[in-house]
């Protein structure tokens, strides 16, 4: 036991400390999620799965909207695509759900290549509108495609495999958090930061902007798709109304509230949007969507950095620790 | 953002800084833990001598109207059961206790909520949520924890094809909704050309396409068979196409908004079908209120109306058991609990699920899931809502849909002839 | 697949539908073109205009065309209030509307839209409808709903009036100047805040009147969620026509309307809708300034 501690744990902890407090905090949180999993009561376990799915979505939209400032209003298209990939894979090709998740990630990434190649050259509102129409078109297409279940969608019976779901989404989330953290570091981080501040200037100093944007978009699409597949697994089905704009808006709200482009922001945003939500369901279901809308307005107008960004702005000492 | 600048511009004491980060992380963890614990501990204890029935209901969100009507039906049914000696099993008398949560019509809420209802609130029996998409998310939990789940709102057939063991439907499935109108046409106007135009959501698309298939199978001519998305803004092209194919009758629709759009645009394209039968929209009072002239003689299928009468005598004549209040008793009980409202068929089908469950428990003389499920599989019951009998997948096969028609601003049951209060008026004249 | 009669009919209906779409897009067009702000809550204000027409119809039996004038007056006030509440902070003193401002206003208005929709669904659970039926007219064997014709005329009217306003009046020219170059406009003595506020007010007046026009066409089944259906259509139309060009919303609207209806004669309805929405992407890629020059 002592050997394990000196040989593995202490060096790892030291290396983690060297990475910075944010990395430490997130690593601790993620390890805790993994370790505590088996001892959580079922009801909390199931909530934790949903939380991790939402957090993965938040990080995925953070990769594009948070990091580059390109507002992806239609991000839900990846969620639905991932779900349909899993649904089709499981029902028609008899894949195991885990393979379906991989398929979801793959199709999400491929779709992002397709959409990104055309739309990433558009700026600001034009990009937002171009992405807005993609889930609408997807909704109509799946509603009219018999192979994808038409309007009835693809309901599935995959039992109650919450254990596998939990660790699958945990792995996705951890990978994504690591990726996000890595993308804020060093030259890559500086490059992305430059891109967000002034795209033309970034291009002028030699940063390969189109490739960077596309890579980020494809990664965000892949993770959103994989998490979308896990969601379809979780709710035992995928339906055309998975392409609802409500999901897109919720994902945006998470990073707006948490802090766009930060490493902690999406996690915070997911906590704030999801946990009170489940609590309020029993008490005041109507008030919650309005509260989120109002929160988004206030934050956009007065605290544009979200919670993390605002704390960083007004509490300079915290900058080292809150990324 | 990068480490280099951070270290240079923040020379504050590292020890105090580390304390801060720990403090922040701890604060966040505490917040999360409090919220999670709050959710966890919001479970409800079960009073002794009661049977707890758990479910979610769409009090808000897209299905708020249907969900609220269903909930009121369930509450009325619970009141009736508890006032009439409750449910007796194994020599003990139990009252029904309801444990329900709003699901906001969103599937993400279903899994955590039903898991809580079963594992923390210890509900012994479950009802399904209102719509088919939400039901898909809830059904695995019923099987996983061995609880019977009764479906009162999800009419899509697909859920019964997924192999769930504990899932039982009370209402007629979507596939038979349009049969009444089709049977009428076959019996009275068999040379009519039929046009099917229906929304592509799960329920409507199954109802529409099954209807078209049924019509063809009994020898009627179907000249048009198309679906449209529920968010449709213009159906003129479709209606013109059907008109130009010499269709006589129009069947389909979807929900309220597109049903109303269909009616408005029929006038706009100048087509007056001889028979119109639309899903869901027609049986709403606001259908007639918002389309005063053109709604006259429009028909629509319904699971139940207040004027349809089932009695215990009819039950024994058909070899069925009987349980629960009569239609009139239910209507007046419902009215007394809702400040005078009239029950809709959503209220009735939801109430029926409670009565079905009560009878199944008594007939099985047990609260054990396996025994109650076996009883549900074999029993033949009639309630104020109609007949109940399921096939091996839990699909309802005995309940019959009725057809309503607006006649002089009043909604009348016109089919089947055995329960009709007024004959079906044909043709539709557009006013 | 479909007979020629159906195709011709679908063309006519598509044009009429296009007029309806154009009517609800004008307001977005103006505000976007002048202040460069994309109002993500646009759909919700269409919805409010439609409800305005409903209440005016309920209380005083007004038909939607008359109600649109009252809605427009209301919209003027609402728009100016909206400007000062949401946009002023961001736009004040700015000489160039940059990406950051676009982002902030987009997000803030999206939050507003979210809030309005949810308050609306709390307040109005049941769909509502107007008591109004303009009837139809039969032209050459084709039945044409008069509601669509009226809205088309109103749409044209809005374009003509706004064109005259923007080119012949001082205020109109000031608005155009602000839209082209804020610094130059200021040098000419234009008060940027006043101009932006008034332009927003006029835009909202058009939007809420557009909501009333929508009820000429869609007389029943009005719910708080209709904004979610018509907002994406409005955005697509304005992008197609080019923001700031008033004729653009008519061109964009008719394009989408015709695409929608005519395609339906050949392919399943769902694919027609998918195609109509996806059409904007190649346009944006190849000709981002819009169809009109």
SSE succession of chain B: HHEHEEHEHEEHEHEHEHEHEHEHHHEEEE
Sheet with the most strands: spatial strand order of chain B: 2-3-1-4-5-6
Q: How many strand units of chain C?
A: 2
State mean pLDDT of chain C (0 to 100 scale). Answer: 86
The helix content of chain C is over 70%
Q: Supply Rg of chain B.
A: 26 Å
Flag low-confidence runs of chain C: none
What is the count of helical runs of chain B?
A: 14
CATH topology of the largest domain in chain B: Rossmann fold
Number of domains of chain C: 1
Shape type of chain B: globular
N- to C-terminal distance of chain B = 70 Å
As a percent range, the share of strand residues of chain B is 15-25%
Name the CATH class of the largest domain in chain B: Alpha Beta
Unreliable runs of chain B: 1-13
The counted number of beta strands of chain B is 16
Most extensive interface between two protein chains, with residue counts: A-B, 62 and 66 residues
* Largest sheet geometry of chain B: 6 strands, mixed
Indicate the percent of residues in helices of chain B: 40-55%
Give the second-level CATH assignment, the architecture of chain C. Orthogonal Bundle
| DSSP summary: helix tally of chain C | 12
Give a verbal description of the structure.
- The complex is a heterotrimer of chains A (323), B (431) and C (293).
- Chain A has 323 residues and is an all-alpha fold.
- Chain A has one domain (20-320).
- Chain A contains 14 helices and two strands; from the N terminus they run H-H-H-H-H-H-E-H-H-H-H-E-H-H-H-H.
- Chain B folds into two domains: 50-172 and 307-388, Response regulator (Rossmann fold, 3-Layer(aba) Sandwich), CATH 3.40.50.2300; 176-302 and 402-415, Response regulator (Rossmann fold).
- In chain B, strand 2 and strand 3 (92-102) form a beta hairpin.
- In chain C, helix 2 (42-60) packs antiparallel against helix 3 (64-91) and helix 10 runs antiparallel to helix 11.
- The longest helix of chain C is centred in the first third of the chain and has 32 residues, at 4-35.
- Chain C has twelve helices and two strands.
- Chain C has a two-stranded antiparallel sheet.
- Chain C has a single domain (4-286), classed as Orthogonal Bundle (ABC transporter involved in vitamin B12 uptake, BtuC), CATH 1.10.3470.
- Classes of the chains: A mainly alpha (323), B alpha/beta (431), C mainly alpha (293).
- The interface between A and C is large, with 42 and 44 residues.
């Amino acid at each position: 036991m002592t050997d394990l501690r000196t040989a593995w744990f202490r060096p790892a902890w030291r290396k983690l400390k060297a990475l910075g407090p944010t990395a430490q905090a997130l690593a601790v949180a993620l390890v805790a999620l993994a370790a505590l999993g088996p001892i959580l009561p079922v009801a909390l376990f199931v909530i934790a799965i949903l939380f991790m799915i939402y957090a993965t979505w938040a990080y995925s939209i953070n990769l594009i909207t948070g990091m580059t400032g390109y507002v992806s209003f239609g991000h839900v298209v990846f969620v639905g695509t991932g779900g349909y990939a899993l649904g089709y894979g499981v029902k028609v090709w008899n894949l195991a759900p885990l393979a379906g998740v991989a398929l979801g990630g793959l199709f999400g990434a491929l779709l992002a290549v397709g959409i990104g190649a055309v739309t990433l050259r558009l700026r600001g509102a034009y990009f937002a509108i171009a992405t807005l129409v993609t889930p609408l078109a997807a909704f109509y297409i799946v509603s009219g495609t018999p192979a994808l279940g038409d309007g009835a969608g693809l309901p599935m019976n995959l039992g109650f495999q919450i254990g596998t779901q939990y660790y699958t989404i945990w792995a996705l989330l951890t990978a994504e958090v690591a990726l996000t953290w890595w993308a804020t570091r060093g030259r890559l981080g500086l490059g992305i930061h430059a891109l967000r501040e002034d795209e033309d200037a970034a291009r002028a100093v030699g940063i390969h902007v189109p490739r960077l944007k596309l890579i980020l978009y494809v990664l965000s699409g892949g993770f959103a798709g994989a998490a979308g597949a896990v969601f379809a697994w979780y709710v035992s089905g995928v339906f055309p109304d998975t392409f609802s704009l409500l999901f897109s808006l919720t994902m945006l709200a998470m990073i707006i509230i948490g802090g766009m482009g930060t490493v902690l922001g999406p996690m915070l945003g997911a906590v704030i949007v999801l946990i009170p939500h489940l609590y309020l369901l029993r008490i005041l279901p109507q008030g919650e969507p309005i509260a989120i809308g109002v929160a988004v307005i206030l934050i956009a107008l007065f605290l544009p950095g979200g919670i993390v960004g605002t704390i960083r702005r007004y509490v300079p000492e915290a900058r080292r620790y809150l990324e | 953002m990068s480490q280099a600048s951070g270290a240079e511009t923040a020379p504050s004491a590292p020890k105090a800084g580390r304390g801060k980060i720990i403090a922040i992380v701890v604060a966040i963890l505490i917040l999360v833990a409090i919220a999670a614990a709050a959710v966890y501990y919001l479970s409800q204890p079960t009073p002794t001598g009661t049977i707890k029935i758990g479910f979610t209901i769409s009090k808000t969100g897209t299905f708020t109207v249907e969900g609220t009507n269903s909930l009121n039906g369930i509450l009325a049914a619970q009141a009736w059961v508890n006032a009439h000696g409750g449910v007796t099993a194994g020599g003990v008398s139990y009252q029904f206790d309801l444990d329900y949560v709003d699901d906001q019509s969103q599937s993400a809420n279903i899994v955590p909520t039903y898991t809580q209802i079963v594992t923390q609130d210890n509900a012994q029996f479950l009802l399904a949520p209102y719509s088919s998409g939400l039901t898909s998310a809830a059904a695995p939990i019923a099987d996983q924890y061995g609880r019977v789940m009764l479906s009162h709102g999800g009419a899509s057939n697909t859920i019964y094809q997924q192999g769930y063991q504990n899932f039982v439907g009370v209402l007629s499935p979507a596939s038979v909704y349009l049969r009444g109108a089709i049977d009428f046409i076959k019996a009275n106007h068999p040379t009519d050309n039929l046009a099917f135009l229906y929304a592509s959501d799960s329920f409507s698309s199954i109802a529409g396409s099954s209807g078209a298939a049924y019509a063809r199978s009994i020898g009627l001519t179907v000249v048009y068979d198309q679906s449209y998305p529920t968010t449709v803004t213009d159906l003129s092209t479709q209606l013109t196409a059907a008109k130009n194919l010499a269709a006589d009758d129009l069947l389909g629709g979807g929900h309220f908004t597109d049903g109303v759009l269909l009616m408005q645009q029929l006038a706009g394209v100048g087509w007056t079908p001889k028979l119109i039968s639309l899903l869901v929209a027609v049986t709403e009072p606001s259908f007639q209120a918002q389309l005063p002239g053109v709604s006259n003689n429009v028909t629509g299928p319904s699971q139940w109306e207040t004027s349809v009468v089932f009695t215990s005598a009819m039950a024994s004549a058909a070899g069925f058991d009987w349980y629960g209040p009569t239609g009139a008793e239910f209507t007046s009980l419902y009215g007394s609990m809702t400040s005078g409202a009239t029950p809709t068929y959503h209220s009735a089908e939801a109430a029926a699920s409670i009565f079905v469950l009560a009878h199944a428990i008594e007939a099985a003389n047990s609260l054990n899931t396996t025994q109650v499920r076996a009883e549900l599989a074999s029993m033949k019951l009639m309630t104020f809502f109609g007949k109940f009998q399921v096939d091996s997948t839990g699909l309802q096969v005995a309940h019959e849909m009725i057809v309503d028609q607006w006649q002089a601003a009043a909604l009348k049951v016109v089919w089947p002839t055995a329960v009709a209060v007024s004959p079906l008026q044909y043709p539709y004249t557009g006013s | 697949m479909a007979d020629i009669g159906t195709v011709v009919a679908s063309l006519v209906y598509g044009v009429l539908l296009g007029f309806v779409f154009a009517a609800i897009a004008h307001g977005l067009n103006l505000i976007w073109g002048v202040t460069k702000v994309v109002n993500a809550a646009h759909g919700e204000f269409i919805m409010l205009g439609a409800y305005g027409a409903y209440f005016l119809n309920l209380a005083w039996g007004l038909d939607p065309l008359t109600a649109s004038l009252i809605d427009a007056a209301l919209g003027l006030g609402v728009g100016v209030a909206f400007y000062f509440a949401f946009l002023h902070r961001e736009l004040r003193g700015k000489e160039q509307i940059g990406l950051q401002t676009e982002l902030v206003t987009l997000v803030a208005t999206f939050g507003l839209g979210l809030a309005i929709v949810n308050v609306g669904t709390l307040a109005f659970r049941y769909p509502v409808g107007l008591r109004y039926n303009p009837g139809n007219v039969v032209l050459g064997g084709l039945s044409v709903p008069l509601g669509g014709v009226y809205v088309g005329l109103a749409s044209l009217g809005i374009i003509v009036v706004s064109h005259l306003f923007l080119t012949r009046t001082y205020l109109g020219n000031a608005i155009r100047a602000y839209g082209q170059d804020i610094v130059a406009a200021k040098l000419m003595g234009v008060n940027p805040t006043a101009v932006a506020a008034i332009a927003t007010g006029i835009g909202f007046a058009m939007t809420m009147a557009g909501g009333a026009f929508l009820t000429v066409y869609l007389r029943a089944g009005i719910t708080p969620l209709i904004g979610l259906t018509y907002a994406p259509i409005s955005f697509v139309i304005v992008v197609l026509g080019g923001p700031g060009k008033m004729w653009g919303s008519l061109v964009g609207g008719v394009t989408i309307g015709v695409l929608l209806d005519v395609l339906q004669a050949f392919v399943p309805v769902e694919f027609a809708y998918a195609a109509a929405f996806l059409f904007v992407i190649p346009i944006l890629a190849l000709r981002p300034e819009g169809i009109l020059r």
